[in-house]
């Protein structure tokens, strides 16, 4: 499911942009990556595109201990967990919904 290298990842991204992607070419890792980048751009703006920045680190640095729009105050570890876990879980739910993966409960 995950691209074997940069060239394959680029080919899959181009297919997404062109509307020719299929379930077989969908990459959960890149999907989660772009969800994180999209969130970061909404929170921090295009300044993230001016250098070599980690989007999650930028949000943690700018919003640690500050209230969000709903008034909740987030700590840096909470921000990091939500920003990584949320997109990863969304990618997993998409894959399950499409029948690309199944879950096995191990006890």
Major β-sheet, in short? none
Helix content: 55-70%
Structural class from helices and strands?
Answer: mainly alpha
Q: What's the gyration radius in Å?
A: 16 Å
What fraction strand? under 5%
Number of helices: 4
Q: What's the count of strands?
A: 0
* Topology pattern, helix = H, strand = E: HHHH
Rounded mean pLDDT score: 86
Global shape: globular
Q: Uncertain segments of ≥5 residues (pLDDT<50)? A: none
Distance between the termini: 26 Å
Give a short overview.
Helix content is 57%, strand content 0%. With 107 residues, it is mostly helical.
Overview of the structural elements:
- With 107 residues, this protein is an all-alpha fold.
- The chain is built from 4 helices and no strands.
- It has helices at 6-18, 28-44, 55-63, 76-97.
Give the helices and strands, then pairings.
Layout: H1 6-18, H2 28-44, H3 55-63, H4 76-97
List the keywords.
107 residues
